[in-house]
Amino acid sequence: METLLLKPNRKSIKLACELLRNGEVVGVPTETVYGLAGDCSNSMAIKKIFEAKGRPNDNPLIVHISNIKMLDKIVSCFNSDAKKLAKKFWPGPLTIIMPKKDFVCKESCGGLNSVGVRMPSNKIARKIIAKSNTPFSAPSANISGKPSPTTAQDVYNDMKGKIPLIIDGGECVAGVESTVISVLEESPTILRPGIITKEEIEKVLHKQVKVAKEVTQQTTNETKVLSPGMKYKHYSPNAKIIVVDSNLKDYVNYVNSLNGKDIYAMCFEKEEKLINKPCITYGKHNNEKSQAHALFSALRKCDEVNAKIVYARCPKTNGISLAVYNRLIRSAGFDIIKL
Ligand code: TXA
Ligand code: MG
Q: Using CA atoms, how far apart are residues 282 and 174, in angstroms rounded to an integer?
């Protein structure tokens, strides 16, 4: 199959809408990462998404809407917590897990009775949903297990020959996927951290919000996870990533003392000059948004330069940094050295 990579304009948006309505899969920009979009009510379309990604079929997809009315078809209960969150954070990078209606096909939800929904703030994504009148399910548009795509070229590299069209909306603003929160229980739980933080959510809900322990801890085969995505290998380049949890001085001494071929350092900007190994940077030390923005492209860069082992600086674990930490430790398969 030929994969078209087109800039967004009337013609390409129209084509994207036609493809979606016909049960095809399209690469679409969002403010977080690029998504692989397919009609959420069409089992065949959803099967194509799982196939293109090589995604385990028990891992549910997020449904994307362009206006709040679309929710009526998708969820059977829009409770007061969900309402407050939607009012404050939509359109934007927040996915809310709610009880599902049958309109969303079971394949999209990995067999669960719930569905994650978000209204993206990216205008191209919303335009495609609105014009096609098709709420679409969309996972990140990477091959399962690889770093998420933050440019159309990343999507092309992973999906060439597998999907008919990618809309090139430029670099994603956020760079990490949406915050996923479940409001199925009385006390809401963050299943995946993102740009919208626990603190911001608590302010809106006027109550404590839990963070699932799997956000920072490795799951074992026996653990029952709230979000199936937590079980799987994620975000990993071919290079071996090792996270070094320490201050800058100890990190520099450690990395500089290593011998061997194709060893890289993944550090923050301006730290390169201290390090005697080739460096890939991901954002600024004291700027968590810049780290989120740069992380996935830095992980992809590791393979572009054929790095074998990459020692990565450890981000903080609060606020937006928790989202960065959550992705980085997974990309490292939880291989963390504490100095
Ligand atoms: O920012 C994003 O959320 C991007 C863009 C494209 O919108 N999408 C994205 O989708 O990251 P994906 O499929 O790569 O990640 C969705 C995560 C998975 O970890 C999945 O297990 C979880 O959300 N999830 C989806 N539906 C769920 C449900 N009903 N219950 C629990 N977890 C769910
Ligand atoms: Mg993903």
A: 13
